[in-house]
Amino acid sequence: MTDRPAAASFDDDGGVLGGLEPNQVRVRFPPSPTGLLTVGNIRSALFNWAFARHYGGKLVLRIEDTDQSRNTPEALQYTLESLRWLGLNWDEGPEVGGEFGPYLQSERMDLYADVVTKLLDAGKAYHCYCSQEELDQRREAARTAGQHSGYDGHCRNLTEEQIQAYVDEGRRPVVRLRMPDRPIVFDDLVRGEITFLPENLGDYVLVRANGYPLYPLVNPVDDALMEITHVLRGEDLLPSTPRQIALYEALAEIGIGNGRTPRFGHLPFVMGEGNKKLSKRDPGSGLGEYMERGFLPEGLLNYLALLGWSIAEDRDVFTMDEMIEAFDIRKVNANAARFDPKKCEAINAAHMRLLPADEFAQRMIPFLAKAGVLPVEPSADQLAVLRAAVPLVQERMNTLSESVDMLGFLFVDEAAFALDPDAAAKVLTGDAGAVLEASAKALTDVEWTTEAIEAALREALIDGLGLKPKNAFGPVRVAISGRRISPPLFESLELLGREKSLHRLNQARAE
RNA sequence: CUUGGAGUAGCUCAGAGGUGGAGCACCCGGCUCUCAACCGGGAGGGCGCGAGUUCGAUCCUCGCCUCCAAGUCCA
């Protein structure tokens, strides 16, 4: 993971910065460690990261683990590892530190309690004694009457006596924010001006009756305390933005944070199959699958960047450095984006071809090792073969895991070598035996170079047996690689070596 | 139901008031020892629907439809 250059020009920030210096930009990525990172999460992280790097600002990683029942330490660790694998480095947060810590919300409970007390004292928030049943009833009534079903303000202005009566009943109150009685308007960085009318903004709960602080409280409080300047997040949070802005304003009035409301930008949804928001449980949504299949981080990120953004009209393959340079939140499309596995793979394939040969070889090793084709630390000879094979396969693979099928035959023991039954059934038929026999004979004494091998086989099979190239080389390919699809044949033979090649030709004849 | 968001080729995205574009995917051809890569060609939408403004609208206005999200003591 390397730091990217903060190369960018700010000639025209189009008001995105809102008067800040570029390097004052502070954005955050706030995952809750409830499980695997999804491609949707990663897209959000990527856009925040690109935004911060573009301006030379800071990316804060904050862990939203207030709901302990859903968190696990493993999930947190997994989240951090995933971000590292992707190369989305953070400037402040777990394992990195920073002056606005702690960065785990579970370690900030005292702060929240303090804020709530101040909000209550200042009259910005109040206790609500309504029971769940009462709320449900009134909400249902409002809904059937065709009205907004938010909180109706029942406990907004209770008298001392009423409060005492509730307390005497043994009721435990929640804390609600007193929403202002005026429209809340904000200029979304992706969608432009958005207005919410007060009648649709009920006072919402900040703290549960059991004293537990909720997301609508802790998220804005931390953003304020951490002096976040821009909030880029999923569109699903758009409806809650006016409430956060109201909280922000209340915090500013009681002197919490720097008094500055961040700018918001709501990123389009990432949809899965059938136009539904991609959920954690959908196949193809978890990062783990992409890691296992051998996607390159740069390939995955490149594709994810395309979900709502484009670097140029006629271009879709680019590096992260290029993205940083070009990223402009105002150019993010507001339409929901559909995750297309095919295009994701195609973009990844393009990055595969961009890799320097040595690095390509290095990146294949873990996959070959996992499949038992190579040891975790290959020998010098094995490495040499692997490197020599790179030019043969680099253009034929879309993901690193394909290296197992593509190159396995070069490394596997003769005892463990086996023909793909389907390939054998289709290709090793009829006069294949004669082809293999003639091939073995032709290769027995030939100089062991690609050119000489090719010449010898052409002479023996095309000229000698009068076969079409396809029928001549097909059986040889299956015999030595075990598959119908392999790297180029003559190069493969050279890499395999004479001894193994002859052995496999003879073995195949016997079958 | 209420509020908010969105509706341009199969998918992702551009586009500008004046006869709709790219990439991926797809099809065909070339190259070739297979599969790719690469090169060349092709098919595919009239811009959700209906009005209005305009000489002219996919782009402006209004209404509608559809999809998505939010609404809760989840995040």
From TrEMBL:
Cellular compartment(s): Cytoplasm
CC per GO annotation: cytosol
Positions of ATP binding: 280
Pfam families linked to this entry: Anticodon_2, tRNA-synt_1c
UniProt-recorded Gene Ontology molecular function terms: ATP binding; glutamate-tRNA ligase activity; tRNA binding; zinc ion binding
Gene Ontology BP annotations: glutamyl-tRNA aminoacylation
Record-listed E.C. numbers: 6.1.1.17
Record motif 'KMSKS' region, residues: 277-281
Gene3D superfamilies in the record: 1.10.10.350, Glutamate-tRNA synthetase, class I, anticodon-binding domain 1, HUPs
Enzyme class of the recorded protein, top EC level: ligase
Residue ranges of the TM segments: none
Domain Aminoacyl-tRNA synthetase class I anticodon-binding: 359-508
Glutamyl/glutaminyl-tRNA synthetase class Ib catalytic domain boundaries: 24-343
Record field: catalytic activity: tRNA(Glu) + L-glutamate + ATP = L-glutamyl-tRNA(Glu) + AMP + diphosphate
Sorted UniProt keywords: Aminoacyl-tRNA synthetase, ATP-binding, Cytoplasm, Ligase, Nucleotide-binding, Protein biosynthesis
PROSITE patterns, A to Z: AA_TRNA_LIGASE_I
Role of this protein: Catalyzes the attachment of glutamate to tRNA(Glu) in a two-step reaction: glutamate is first activated by ATP to form Glu-AMP and then transferred to the acceptor end of tRNA(Glu).
Subunit-structure text: Monomer.
Protein family membership: Belongs to the class-I aminoacyl-tRNA synthetase family. Glutamate--tRNA ligase type 1 subfamily.
Name of the molecule in the record: Glutamate--tRNA ligase
Upper classification of the organism: Bacteria, Bacillati, Actinomycetota, Actinomycetes, Propionibacteriales
